[in-house]
Amino acid sequence: MRRTTLILTLLLLALAGGSCLLHSRISKENPAPVRWRDSLNEAITNDLSSLPEMDQVVDSFMTFWHLRGVSLSISRNDSLLYARGYGKADAGQAMAPGTTLRLASVSKLLTAVGIMRLQEKAMLFLDSPVFGPYGILQEYDSYIRDDNYYLITVEHLLRHQAGFTSRGGDPVFSPYPSQEELLKKQLSRSLYYEPGTTQEYSNFGFLLLSLIIEKVSGLPYEDFMRQEVFAPARCYSFRLAGNYLKDRHPGESRYHMHPEAVQSPSFDGRFAAVDKCYGGNNISGSLGAGGWTGSVVELSRLVATIDGKGPVEDILLPFSVKQMTNYYDTETFSLGWNDTKPTGEWTRSGSFSGTQALVKTFPDGECWIFLSNTSTWRGSRFARNIAGLFDNLRSRFSAQLPSRDLFRE
Q1: What's the pLDDT at 9?
Q2: Contact 169, 175 (CB under 8 A)
Q3: 377-393: b (≥16 Cβ within 10 Å) or e
Q4: What are the two backbone dihedrals, phi and then psi, of residue 270, each rounded to the nearest 5 degrees?
Q5: Is 378 helix (H, G, I), strand (E, B) or coil?
Q6: DSSP symbol at 153
Q7: N or C: which end of the chain has fewer CB within 10 A?
Q8: Residue 387 has what pLDDT?
Q9: How many of the other CB atoms lie within 10 Å of CB of 237?
Q10: Separation CA 169–CA 146 (nearest Å)
Q11: Is the Cβ–Cβ distance between 194 and 148 less than 8 Å?
Q12: Packing angle, helices 107-120 and 2-27, rounded to 10
């Protein structure tokens, strides 16, 4: 019954959305079509954004935290007002708004959008079982020893409520010779708690969501995301990250550890000591848990397509946006987002070796995005420092931001 109601709701919303769009076009007496930029990373350069006093604050923040390079974008009501790179992307190469960087756990927001796209196509549902005779990933049932696994749903994975734990080490960033060995080892373990009874942050849960996308769509995870999420949003430069410096994509920044960092063995056993940002973790193998690279301008554009607002057309139906951003309480993760307050303040952070990231929308319609190519000793807690920087810059400079839209030609 729940699924039948959901399907009918999605159909009605799709029809209503199309009708409203048609009405809005007619009511505006056939205005000239908006010409959106399709090559944001190349078209939007540092020369287009400059507020010297604000830039000086960012530079000081970078100096204090020993950050080699930072990229910042600011949008308001789906219009990109400001985008600038600070410091270096590599030796002799300035950071630019179109420089791509690892997104760490901001990748989870992208994966959640992919799941919602599949639900809109009625190819899965949030209450779909993951394992068991009717489960999406039933081919892994032979590994399972704990019957609680058969209670796990897609929504449990999205909300970090599936029963997995990282106590004793994060399995996704532990040295396993292959993805199959990782799955076999983890699924043979007992769950830490019964699914749906509490929550604990889990990269492994989002790795499973990536495999669910592959299974349901019939496409490799990266291909599905590029076809069904990024291309409709007019974002064309998102790529899954490589693990070593030699695997860096064209236009991607180089990464750095903080000054006190020590080397570690490579995840694949090839090297006895590496900078952890290059070989310390299997980043590409994490898929939708933390594997994406992208720029602040394309990430800003993507957020504009999943916020339920205009003028940028959403790639999700209003029902899906509401599901992703619905607030329950302080103890419940939102879908893809870390937290979505009823005021419209939504947060998604990301952090691992060589990467710091924060996406934050505010009640006044602004969205601020920060990416850095340098990790700090604070790890994931550094998101609070970035949020403090946002608050400082917003209070002092929001009124000085130009009225324009860099998304448009």
Answers
A1: 53
A2: no
A3: eeeeebbebbbebbeeb
A4: -75, -30
A5: coil
A6: B
A7: N
A8: 97
A9: 21
A10: 20
A11: yes
A12: 100
Helix (H) or strand (E) holding 54, with range, is helix 52-65
Cis peptide before 311 (omega within 30 of 0): yes
Token reading at 400: 């000085």
Q: Which two tokens stand for residue 168?
A: 């004793």
- Report the run of H or E that residue 384 belongs to, with start and end: helix 382-397
Which residue has tokens 């892994």? 140
Beta-bridge partners for 101: 294
Whether 143 and 184 have beta carbons less than 8 Å apart is answered as: yes
From residue 45, how far is each of 73, 130, 188, 298, 324 by CA, in Å?
12, 44, 50, 13, 32
pTM of the model as a whole: 0.91
Annotate 12-25 with DSSP letters as a single string.
HHHHHHHHHHHHHH
CB-count exposure of residue 141 (10 Å: 0-12, 13-18, 19+): middle
Tokens of 376: 């700090």
Q: Could you write out the DSSP letters of every residue in 194-257?
A: -TTS-----HHHHHHHHHHHHHHHSS-HHHHHIIIIITTTT----EEPPSSGGGPPTTBPP-B-
Show the tokens assigned to 85: 């790179």
Give residue 16's pLDDT: 44
Residue keyed to tokens 């270096």: 88
pLDDT along the chain (409 residues), means of 10: 54 45 36 72 95 98 98 97 98 96 98 98 97 97 97 98 91 86 94 96 97 98 97 96 96 95 92 95 95 98 95 96 93 95 95 96 97 95 97 98 92
CA distance 17 to 12: 8
CA distance linking residue 218 with residue 160, whole number of Å? 25
The phi, psi pair for 396, rounded to 5°, reads -100, -30
**Would you state the structure tokens that stand for residue 75, as one six-digit string?**
């949008």
Cβ within 8 Å of residue 395, ≥6 positions away: none
| 178-187 long-range Cβ contacts below 8 angstroms, 24+ apart | 179/285, 182/285, 183/140, 183/143, 184/143, 187/140, 187/143, 187/144, 187/149
CA dist., res. 377 & res. 258, Å (int): 7
Which tokens is 406 given?
A: 């860099």
Per DSSP, the chain holds a count of helices (H) and strands (E) of: 11, 10
Q: Give residue 178's pLDDT.
A: 84
DSSP structure class, residue 281: S
Tokens of 100: 């791509």
**Neighbouring-strand partners of residue 240:** 292
